Amino acid sequence: MNLSTLPTAASIAKVSHLGHWTLREYAEVDSTNYVAGRLPAWSAVRADTQSAGRGRFQRSWVSDAGGLWLSAVVPATGNKASWQVMPLVAGLAVIETLKSFGVTNTHLRWPNDIMVGDKKLAGLLLDTFTPNLAVIGLGINVTNQPAAQDAALSATATRLADFLNPAPTLGILTVAILSSLHTTMNELADRGFAALRPRINQLWGGTPRVKVDLDHGQREGVFTGVDDLGRLLLREDSGQATALATHEVKLLREL
Questions:
Q1: CA–CA distance, 121 with 162 (Å, rounded to integer)
Q2: Do 99 and 214 reside in the same domain of the chain?
Q3: What is the pTM of this model?
Q4: Rounded to whole angstroms, what are the CA distances from 130 to 45, 72, 191?
Q5: Cα–Cα distance between 13 and 45 in angstroms, integer?
Q6: Is the predicted pLDDT of residue 219 greater than 50, yes or no?
Q7: Does residue 133 share a domain with residue 70?
Q8: Based on the structure, what is the number of domains in the chain?
Q9: Do 196 and 213 fall into the same domain?
Q10: In whole numbers, what is the pLDDT of the chain averaged over residues?
């Protein structure tokens, strides 16, 4: 989707300045990523609800009141590989923020999910609508009730309120995540992904056995982390080591 065809916000924004960020907050939008796609670097958009929240491959994302639906615009210069790792770097920023609030049992699921055990707490989505800018969309279940919107989510989703009493307010969580995101994105620009990769590779929750759905068939093996390009490293039973890029993998399941 290009910039000229992006939908527009459905309500009036409240604008505030948080350190390096300009934050626009809405009661409801279709997608915070779509709204953020029109804004300059170091802009952020938060909405109480989204009517068209999205995940990877245009999957819908339940975005009911009480969750953190946030998009951040960051510089995306250099070659394509240098910014395709941004969801992993953003995941690092979010998990380190959650740890500061006392949530210590989170882990990443490649390439863009934040998990507690086998349940999903948060997801990330990278969009590029204009040259040299990337929009990082983040959805975190906080006090919202995703299962009330879709009963199937009771088995697959969890919330910060299930682990923290009280859960942080959306305002406090927004400030903390944007601060951490600014720091990690500057680290990426200054030092490169290879410098951040060891910290990210500590966040996978071990080396689980996984099955990956590809455009042509499936592969199964042990997930051993990511390489310097952010590609999934899979050690198959034959001993063969395979690196898979994000666009090659339609679905990853931990076995």
A1: 10
A2: no
A3: 0.89
A4: 17, 14, 24
A5: 9
A6: yes
A7: yes
A8: 2
A9: no
A10: 88
